[in-house]
Amino acid sequence: MAKEIKTTFRNESGAALIVALIMMIVLTLIGLASVFTSTFEIKLSGNKRGSTDAFYAADSGVQVTMTNVHHFDTPAGNTTNVWSPTLTENPTNAEVVIHHDTTRFGPPRGAGFGVVGGGGEPLDFKYYLIESTGRDQIEVSLNKSKCTVEEKVVRIVPQ
């Protein structure tokens, strides 16, 4: 009986192969997991870049529109597309629309403005809503990011 036990333990010629195969499987699984994780991270960072580009395009549309006073020469109650071909060239690649709000009048609440200017002339307050939509500028992604920024603006003009 003791002889049988000794021969069973001495016949270990395939154990190293089994251990090596198990280690290869474990290392392969670790490698595949890291490949899938890095692929996911690349897609995630690409989506973040696209949404950031869209936000900055929309925000620049608002900022450029506010710097040009002639954009606010919109008839009362109308909506104007700022970057129509007849008005001006579009430097921001954003779609900008100005809504002239005629439902609001008078000075903004809490702004500290009176109804007369420094020289005693009466003032008029015109309210606008600038709506700027920016899109991702790079053509590699199938899912294009889009962002809309809205900015309320009050224009103070003498009557």
Count of the domains: 1
Please tally the β strands and state the result. Answer: 4
Q: Which regions contain 5 or more consecutive residues with pLDDT less than 50? A: none
In which range does the helix fraction lie?
A: 25-40%
The average pLDDT value, as a whole number, equals 78
Judging from the principal axes of the Cα atoms, what is the shape?
rod-shaped
Largest sheet: 4 strands, antiparallel
End-to-end separation in angstroms reads 116 Å
Radius of gyration: 33 Å
How many separate helices? Answer: 2
Structural class determined from secondary elements: alpha+beta
Order of helices and strands: HHEEEE
Characterise this structure:
There is one protein chain. The chain has helices at residues 2-10, 15-67, and strands at residues 79-81, 94-101, 123-135, 146-158. It is of the alpha+beta class and 159 residues long. A four-stranded antiparallel sheet has the order 1-2-3-4. The radius of gyration is 33 Å and the shape is rod-shaped. The chain starts with a helix and ends with a strand. 14% of the residues are buried.
Q: What's the short version?
A:
The protein is built from two helices and four strands; from the N terminus they run H-H-E-E-E-E. By secondary structure, the chain is an alpha+beta fold. The protein has one domain.
Question: What's the topology here?
Answer:
Blueprint: H1 2-10, H2 15-67, E1 79-81, E2 94-101, E3 123-135, E4 146-158
Antiparallel strand pairs: 1-2, 2-3, 3-4
Keywords:
single chain, 159 residues, alpha+beta, 4-stranded antiparallel sheet, 2 helices, 4 strands, 39% helix, 23% strand
